[in-house]
């Protein structure tokens, strides 16, 4: 992702919804005539990890909508390879900030990674509940035990 388009802590002029719409292909004039897509009301913002369920619902609702109004719609319309590529780019940016020891940047990059992961789930037709269920299953076993169960003879 171009740094100029980043959300979160790095406030840049490209980060506003209006400029994002322009960047995504709509002219400023054309975008202003279009009705903005609905976003969840902030007063009923979900707590903690439920924010991911809400984000999933929003991204899913964007499928097939106007790419000029929705970054998710644009990304979904560009296909699986592009979606995977964007996720990979965000993951790399995340690890760069982790290695650089920049917690604030890591928070912002982590949000980007989660957003792009959710776009990938929507494209693949899987739900967050399937992932939560897998995580719950793993909670019954430590990571060390799980790895040992995969490598019964102790091979790495
Ligand atoms: N969390 C995000 C989010 N994080 C990052 N981004 C956007 O992702 C884009 C990444 O920029 P890039 O330059 O990397 O992407 P790009 O334009 O595809 O780049 P190229 O590959 O074309 O070079 C930026 O425009 C960011 O604003 C996001 N866009 C949307 N969301 C969430 O998704 C919801 C729905 O958004 P829309 O689909 O836009 O309605 C929003 O309410 C948010 O909650």
Automatic annotation (TrEMBL):
Single Gene Ontology MF annotation: ATP binding
Pfam families: PRA-PH (PF01503)
SUPFAM superfamilies registered for this protein in UniProt: all-alpha NTP pyrophosphatases
Gene Ontology BP annotations: L-histidine biosynthetic process
Enzyme Commission number, as recorded: 3.6.1.31
Entry keywords, A to Z: Amino-acid biosynthesis, ATP-binding, Cytoplasm, Histidine biosynthesis, Hydrolase, Nucleotide-binding
Subcellular location: Cytoplasm
Pathway, per record: Amino-acid biosynthesis; L-histidine biosynthesis; L-histidine from 5-phospho-alpha-D-ribose 1-diphosphate: step 2/9
Swiss-Prot/TrEMBL catalytic activity: 1-(5-phospho-beta-D-ribosyl)-ATP + H2O = 1-(5-phospho-beta-D-ribosyl)-5'-AMP + diphosphate + H(+)
Biased composition regions of type Basic and acidic residues, renumbered to the chain: 10-27
Record's keyword annotation contains ATP-binding: yes
GO CC entries: cytoplasm
Positions of the UniProt region annotated as Disordered: 1-43, 137-156
Family: Belongs to the PRA-PH family.
HAMAP family recorded: HisE
Record's protein name: Phosphoribosyl-ATP pyrophosphatase
The species this protein was found in: Swaminathania salitolerans
Gene name in the database record: hisE
